[in-house]
């Protein structure tokens, strides 16, 4: 079997058994990355990767390897990486070589994983199709005229096309789960506060979370173990021990109570997708779970709440991108005002500008109560819905995306893009953990199953996903022609 | 038309923590530009703030010192605007829920005590520095100061004259140093006063439109600036004009205030709670701990001095005006029950000598224990008050300890009645002309005799005894 | 709630963004569509609801007052668009 046909777990075993070296592994994947036309990478760090691989090999030789030693990965270009360009998919950071490492980058470095490159993404994490990148759109490996999803489009495409055993992603309104769904891979957004945000370029501070994107739930468990944990540099980081996520993967699902929100199965959901989801949920019944209908009455308000809160927070978070201390500065600024206006206007793409302006407006004098405050209150109601439901069931399941991947360039209207986030947004608003796992193929495109748990139940989610992946083989399906 | 002045002060006190309020960079003054601006202070993409516990404690300490309500849950908000010395494009401050709520402080103006209300005090981060005259075509930005903790203290508009404003500013200035939260160095910018000034017809309830005065870095300038502005407003209103709400810069060289082009042309700061920070909780434990560590406050100490030690209001005020002086004094009276005499010496000779050489009392060459002993030697009649001044000089010049100096210079007072009598008799017998003058009614000539006696005894005769015996002998 | 072109220009300036005259119309339309979308929240009765600024119920952790950062000015300034010997430079600001 070729390296890229193995899971992370299998590669781990192979390295540990000295069946092959990290350098061999890395060279193999680098070649695949370089030959790929998916545009999944903004920066390919081939030289650095080989240096890291060599080091990993010597660590493996000395018997000191850990979970990710020698394993290559694609790092979403939203994470600051010391000495390596960190653009967040934006022209305004195109010149930015980060002088420091994000905590997640540090953790991966400390575990001697091998960074193949920085993955392409929607500019500054804003988008659902990776069409908003300064570096061009990413293509879905299943159908290159379709979007891979966003904002972690590059990360998802890279795993789906087997250019890398795993990727890192970030999820603010679905940016791990939705591309995972559209590309037929596994993605996990942990509980808010599980993974440090230090060094992760901020979009919406109270919604952003980093997470693994892999071929399997088992692989996701391995990656999460490494990147999760308390960070004293992040005030919103939770001081909770990181469990061994692999340990409970094989627990029985007997007695598992699954809730299906009726609001997630109403109009707007593509029939093909709906069928696949329902089929997938039936699988769980054969594994000993019970399914019942539940209700999240405020579900539809997730979209307006999110599209106020996220723009408000990002309009402020992005004020630091001003051409003064780093990043893009316009040519020959006449005065300070010109410096700011032109650097930012030339540096930011349209979607980013739209969200900054909406946010500025919503926070401006006279509108704060009607918009931002109202959205925060609505958020409470949305979150309460979940807590009510979790009194009756253990997990919630449903679709991740109302449709399969759409054609690149087909959604011209910003709002229509927003509407496709309907299922994923409320999870970020509530701060809950959730996964997307491959659950079927519809119209030749992957369909992802959404599994939402209560706070700090990542172990259970991974367990549920793993058992499904033992029972079914959707996660083993690959796009044609990626070999 | 009689006008009433209304003044409120906003004081920014830089807290003397070692590190910044949201990062671990140093706050030391005078470092090479940008050498103390870490990633967080620079607002690099992805960095996050974490709150300095000491900044919180110092803010609480201030709150306790002005009898204020402490908001045990308080929140940091973002104040958004664009300026080169504001790296993130927003300042982290506190709007709705500041750490310190309403409090008060008493000031003395012309011997009268007045209570000034403190509306609130909140924590925020300082901005960096923009230097406009270093380069021809550029403004240079130094971000060392960015992130230094500030406590913004807002007073009620309770002051009715520039003098009251200065008295309040001075009181706060000495208080923040007293409780060790700020070094009060106005030249270095650790203590900055902005004044909100307005006038209204006497008797009117509504406040007039106020202007804000900035760029005042001394108490002298504070008084000048306020009075200038009051004059300007009065002239303006009496001429039929209107006062515009604006910010005015005080120019010390030109002795005028002028309208400032605002940093933020649109004053919409779009405040909202900072989502990178969580609500700050001042736990009961922390509050207790801070209360325990709080030194006896100036006004408490002053009351104790007046009630228990019998010091005058004025003396007590002076001694408690600085922690250094109060600490010095406390050490003196630890071994000396003559509180009043100790106070006199601290405020008199010692102060004089310190001022002459521009020394702080904490760097006094004479220790409080030595001063205490000196005072003791006056009380126990070993030396006279006058001779004590000579001993003081010797102590100042490090010539030895109190008793050593007295011994080596033979300064012991002559208190032996017999000895004094003998000398007086001798002086009297040698100066019959003056004796006649005294006996014929010239009281003043007594001084001559005293002078002679002092000369004969090298100043060591006990003055009181001399006086008593002299009068008897001359009678 | 509907914004007109002038208001959009003001909002743009508040965010230090420039909207070209030629795009003003379409951006205003886009923003109004978004506002339309978010206006749905007015259907909700939130009078007695507490706002949720953070998903986690935690209070702020307080750091010890220790200096932990060293002088990295050289490395930080090496990525700046324009610097003098020690300073970041911007076009002269008149106060």
Summarize the structure.
The complex is a heterotrimer of chains A (483), B (475) and C (95). With 475 residues, chain B is an alpha+beta fold.
Please characterize this protein's 3D structure.
- Chain A has 483 residues and is α/β, with parallel strands linked by helices.
- Chain A has a domain at 3-252: Amidase signature (AS) domain (Amidase signature (AS) enzymes, Alpha-Beta Complex).
- Helices cover 37% and strands 13% of the residues of chain A.
- Chain A contains 15 helices and eleven strands.
- In chain A, strands 1-3-2-4-6-5-10-11-9-7-8 form an eleven-stranded mixed β-sheet, sandwiched between helices.
- The longest helix of chain A is centred in the last third of the chain and has 21 residues, at 369-389.
- Chain A is globular.
- Chain A starts with 7 loop residues before the first helix and ends in a 12-residue tail after the last helix.
- Chain B has three domains: 3-288, no CATH class; 296-408, no CATH class; 417-474, Orthogonal Bundle (Arc Repressor Mutant, subunit A).
- In chain B, 43% of the residues are buried.
- Chain B is elongated and about 95 Å long.
- Chain B is an alpha+beta fold.
- Chain C has three helices and two strands.
- Chain C has 95 residues and is mainly α.
- Helix content of chain C is 35%, strand content 6%.
- Chain C starts with a helix and ends with a strand.
- The radius of gyration of chain C is 23 Å and the shape is flat.
- Classes of the chains: A alpha/beta (483), B alpha+beta (475), C mainly alpha (95).
- The interface between A and C is large, with 72 and 51 residues.
- Strand 2 of chain B pairs parallel with strand 1 of chain C.
Question: What layout of secondary structure does this protein have?
Answer:
The complex is a heterotrimer of chains A (483), B (475) and C (95).
Chain A: H1 8-16, H2 22-35, E1 41-44, H3 46-61, E2 72-76, H4 103-110, E3 114-119, H5 153-160, E4 166-171, H6 177-183, E5 186-189, E6 209-214, H7 217-227, E7 257-261, H8 271-286, E8 290-294, H9 302-317, H10 336-347, H11 350-363, H12 369-389, E9 395-399, H13 414-419, H14 425-430, E10 434-442, E11 445-453, H15 458-471
Parallel strand pairs in A: 2-3, 2-4, 7-8, 7-9
Antiparallel strand pairs in A: 1-3, 4-6, 5-6, 5-10, 9-11, 10-11
Chain B: E1 3-14, H1 39-42, E2 51-52, H2 53-65, E3 73-74, E4 77-80, E5 90-93, E6 103-109, E7 112-125, E8 129-131, E9 138-142, E10 149-155, H3 162-178, E11 191-201, E12 211-216, H4 219-238, E13 247-251, E14 256-259, E15 272-273, E16 280-281, H5 284-293, H6 298-309, H7 313-319, H8 323-334, H9 339-356, H10 368-379, H11 385-396, H12 402-408, H13 417-430, H14 432-439, H15 446-456, H16 463-474
Parallel strand pairs in B: 12-13
Antiparallel strand pairs in B: 1-10, 1-11, 3-16, 4-5, 4-15, 6-7, 7-10, 8-9, 11-12, 13-14
Helix pairs in contact in B: 2-5, 3-4, 6-7, 7-9, 8-9, 8-10, 10-11, 13-15, 13-16, 15-16
Chain C: H1 5-14, H2 21-38, E1 62-63, H3 73-77, E2 88-91
């Amino acid at each position: 079997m070729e390296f890229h046909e193995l899971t992370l777990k299998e590669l781990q075993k192979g390295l540990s058994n000295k069946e092959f070296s990290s350098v061999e592994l890395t060279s193999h994947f680098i070649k695949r990355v370089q030959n790929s036309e998916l545009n999944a990478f903004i920066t390919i760090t081939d030289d650095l990767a080989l240096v890291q691989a060599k080091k990993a090999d010597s660590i493996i030789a000395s018997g000191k390897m850990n979970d990710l030693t020698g394993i290559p990965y694609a790092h979403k270009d939203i994470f600051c990486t010391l000495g390596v360009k960190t653009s967040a998919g934006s022209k305004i950071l195109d010149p930015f070589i980060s002088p420091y490492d994000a905590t997640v980058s540090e953790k991966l470095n400390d575990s001697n994983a091998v960074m193949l490159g920085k993955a392409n993404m929607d500019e500054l994490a804003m988008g659902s199709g990776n069409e908003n990148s300064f570096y061009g759109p990413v293509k879905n490996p299943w159908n290159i005229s379709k979007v891979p999803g966003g904002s972690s489009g590059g990360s998802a495409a890279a795993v789906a096309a087997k250019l890398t055993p795993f990727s890192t992603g970030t999820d603010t309104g679905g940016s791990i789960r939705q591309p995972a769904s559209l590309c037929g891979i596994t993605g996990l957004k942990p509980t808010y506060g599980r993974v440090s945000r230090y060094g992760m370029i901020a979009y919406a501070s109270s919604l952003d979370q980093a997470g693994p994107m892999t071929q399997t739930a088992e692989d996701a468990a391995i990656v999460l173990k490494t990147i999760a944990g308390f960070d004293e540099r992040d005030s919103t980081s939770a001081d909770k021990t990181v469990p061994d996520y692999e340990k409970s993967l094989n627990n029985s699902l007997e007695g598992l109570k699954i809730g299906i929100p009726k609001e997630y199965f109403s109009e707007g959901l593509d029939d093909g997708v709906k069928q696949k989801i329902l089929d997938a949920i039936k699988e769980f019944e054969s594994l000993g779970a019970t399914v019942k209908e539940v209700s999240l009455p405020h579900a539809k308000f997730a979209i307006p709440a999110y599209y106020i809160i996220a723009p408000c927070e990002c309009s402020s978070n992005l004020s630091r991108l001003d051409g003064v201390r780093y990043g893009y500065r316009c040519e020959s600024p006449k005065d300070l005002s010109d410096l700011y206006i032109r650097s930012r206007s030339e540096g930011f793409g349209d979607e980013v500008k739209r969200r900054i302006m909406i946010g500025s407006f919503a926070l401006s004098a006279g509108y704060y109560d009607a918009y931002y405050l109202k959205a925060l209150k609505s958020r409470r109601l949305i979150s309460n819905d979940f807590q009510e439901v979790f009194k009756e069931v253990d997990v919630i399941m449903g679709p991740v995306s109302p449709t399969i991947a759409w054609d690149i360039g087909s959604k011209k209207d910003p709002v229509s893009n927003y509407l496709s986030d309907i299922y994923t947004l409320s999870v970020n608003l509530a701060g809950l953990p959730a996964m997307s796992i491959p659950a079927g193929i519809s119209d030749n495109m992957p369909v992802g199953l959404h599994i939402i748990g209560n706070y700090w139940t990542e172990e259970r989610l991974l367990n549920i996903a793993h058992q499904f992946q033992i029972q079914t083989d959707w996660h083993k399906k690959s796009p044609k022609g990626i070999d | 038309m009689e006008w009433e002045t209304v003044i409120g002060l906003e004081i920014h006190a830089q807290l003397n923590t070692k590190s910044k309020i949201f990062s671990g960079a140093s706050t030391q003054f005078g470092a090479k530009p940008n050498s103390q601006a870490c990633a967080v202070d620079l607002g690099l993409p992805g960095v996050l703030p974490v709150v300095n516990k000491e900044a919180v404690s110092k803010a609480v300490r201030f709150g306790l010192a002005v009898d204020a309500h402490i908001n045990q849950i308080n929140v940091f908000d973002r104040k958004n605007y664009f300026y080169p010395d504001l790296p993130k494009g927003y300042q982290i401050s506190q709007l709705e829920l500041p750490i310190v709520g309403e409090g008060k402080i008493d000031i003395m103006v012309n011997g009268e005590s007045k209570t000034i209300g403190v509306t609130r005090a909140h924590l925020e981060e300082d901005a960096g520095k923009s230097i406009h005259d270093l380069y021809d075509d550029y403004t240079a930005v130094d971000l060392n100061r960015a992130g230094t903790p500030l406590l913004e203290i807002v007073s009620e508009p309770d002051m009715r004259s520039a003098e009251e404003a200065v008295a309040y500013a001075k009181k706060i200035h000495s208080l923040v140093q007293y409780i060790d939260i700020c070094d009060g160095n106005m030249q270095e910018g650790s203590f900055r006063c902005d004044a909100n000034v307005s006038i209204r017809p006497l008797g009117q309830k509504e406040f007039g439109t106020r202007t804000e005065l900035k760029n005042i870095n001394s108490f002298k300038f504070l008084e000048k600036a306020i009075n200038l502005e009051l004059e300007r407003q009065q002239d303006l209103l009496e001429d039929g004009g209107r006062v515009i709400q604006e910010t005015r810069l005080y120019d010390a060289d030109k002795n005028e205030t002028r309208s400032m082009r605002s940093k933020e042309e649109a004053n919409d700061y779009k405040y909202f709670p900072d989502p990178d920070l969580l609500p700050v909780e001042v736990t009961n434990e922390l509050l207790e701990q801070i209360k325990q560590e709080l030194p006896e406050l100036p006004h408490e100490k002053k009351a104790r001095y007046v009630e228990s030690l019998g010091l005058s209001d004025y003396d007590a005020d002076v001694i408690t005006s600085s922690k250094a002086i109060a600490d010095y004094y406390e050490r003196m009276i630890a071994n000396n029950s003559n509180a009043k005499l100790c106070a006199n010496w601290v405020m008199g000779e010692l102060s004089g000598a310190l001022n002459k050489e521009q020394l702080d009392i904490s760097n006094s060459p004479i220790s409080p224990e030595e001063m205490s002993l000196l005072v003791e030697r006056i009380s126990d009649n070993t030396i006279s008050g006058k001779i004590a001044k000579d001993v003081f000089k010797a102590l100042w010049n490090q010539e030895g300890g109190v008793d050593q100096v007295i011994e080596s210079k033979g300064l012991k007072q002559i208190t032996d009645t017999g000895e004094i009598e003998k000398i007086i008799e001798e002086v009297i017998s040698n100066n019959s002309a003056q004796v006649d003058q005294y006996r014929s009614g010239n009281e003043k000539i007594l001084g001559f005799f005293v002078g002679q006696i002092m000369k004969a005894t090298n100043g060591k005769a006990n003055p009181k005894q001399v006086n008593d015996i002299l009068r008897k002998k001359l009678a | 709630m509907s914004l007109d072109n002038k208001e959009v220009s003001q909002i743009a300036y508040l965010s230090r963004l420039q909207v070209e005259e030629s795009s003003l119309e379409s951006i205003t339309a886009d923003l109004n569509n978004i506002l339309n979308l978010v206006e749905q929240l007015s259907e909700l009765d939130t009078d007695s609801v507490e706002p949720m600024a953070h998903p986690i119920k935690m209070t702020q952790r307080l750091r010890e007052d220790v200096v932990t950062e060293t002088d990295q000015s050289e490395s930080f300034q090496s990525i700046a668009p324009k610097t003098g010997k020690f300073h970041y430079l911007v076009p002269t600001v008149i106060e």
